[in-house]
Amino acid sequence: MATTTAIDFRTLTLDAPLPLDSGRALAGVEMAYETYGELAADKSNAVLVCHALTGDQFVAGTNPVTGKPGWWERMVGPGKPIDTDRFHVICANVIGSCLGSTGPASAGPDGQPYAMEFPVITIRDMVRAQMAMLDALGIGRLHAVVGGSMGGMQALSCAANFPERTDRVLAIATTARHSAQNIAFHEMGRQAIMADPNWQGGNYYAGETPAKGLAVARMAAHITYLSEEGLTEKFGRRLQDRDAKSFGFDADFQVESYLRYQGLSFTDRFDANSYLYITRAMDYFDLAEEHGGLLADAFRGAKDTRFCLVSFDTDWLYTTADMREVVHALNAVAAPVSFVELSAPYGHDSFLLDVPALDRVVKGFLV
Amino acid sequence: MSALRPDLAKIAYMVPASSRVLDVGCGEGDLMEVLQLQKQCDARGMEIDAEQVAKAVSRGLSVVQGDANRDLADYPNGAFDVAVLSQTLQTAQRPDWLLEQLLRVGREAFVSFPNFAYWRMRLSLLRNGRMPISRHLPGSWYETANIHHLTIADFREFLSQRGVNISGSWFFADGREIGGRNANWRAEHAVFQLSR
Question: How many domains, in total, are found in chain B?
């Protein structure tokens, strides 16, 4: 079933159409995935790692597309906190994305890219697709599902909707519900993409891409991933390659230059329509709403699942208060839950960066 | 497994096997680990210090970082068979509120605290006229976390005023259990088993 595409993505095709929250179904879904470490004979050591908004399946080792280390290389690998000498780590590109799994840039039934004909998807749809992928891989029950940010949403969604599929849930720097502020930042990014003349109602695949709009979207989002303290420490008001202000609109400040670079380099690797669809899925995410309005009801089936939740004191995107709501709901159903707010200077991005206390928590929780 | 502090060892001995236990102020989870391994309890912890929570989680324990002065209110009534508060009562902002919460979330509670009326404390205060510093109460008056010192006599009076039943009490000095006679001056710290 596993096939290899031209760019060497390892993929499998789901046998049945994937039912979606919108009421539609998606046929012929391809899932691009990677695995690290051996699967035990009794299949008891599988760990599903879920990636964030712009992430991919290359969690460890070297990313063959970029040539850079995998996005969580510091956490996943031999002898690392998610130890691939012990665990069979699986990471799949989410549906709606553009790094091998079916998304708006993939060919639709008519052979043309779906573009805006792609159905609007949800976090739960992403999880459904991954569960179907696990079925195809013959893995019934996971040792753990792990994720940060949007990956954490998937981990919580997995606990709520497929509690029988995992023994443990480790959700980092995430939330059970996108707030008005979260939605507002995403909407700004989407409007930037759609305001780019190259967007063309999403039908840009044959011509120029809306790279300028996508870059602005990324710049805005990137600010939300950092703390004010972190930005001040990294850039302050320092000027970029000059001794004085230019009295123009060049990137005078280092922080401007940095954001422009972040925006631009992002457009090389990410599809603008995927950005629209995935941010939409995150905005629609509200675990309580999915389960009749009470968050505790979302976790009724998961009272025997072990949870570990981690927030960071400088993360203003998904805050400790957001996480405490999840803790509260899990206490209400008496699920075994651990929670810790770690101190780190990097804002939301802390979950990806050098925070030794996080390494210890992850390692200890997965034992 | 390291040896437990004498008050924790007594609590570990007294907690019924297979019960659901909440350890408030659990530190790195020494008591929880013993309860899970030796008495098959379902033990949960609450601890304010992030580093200690991280260590407890890395031991495979379920610990929520939180401030007992506030977050205990988040637990449902009777969620636990036993609630434990060891050497923490004297650090609470409102010990009376904390004790009410403890007896609300747990059907019974074990509470241990250092006895400020211990004879060495009395002697130190009498002799030096300064706030005593001891093994169980280290730290100077301005930096100590112990903001509500109490004695065994104070605690008994408090419990009787509030109609809390004492099902058991144990007393310790110099790391050993001692009898209950004249405990208010002989005991360095005390453990009480309480219920409503």
Answer: 1
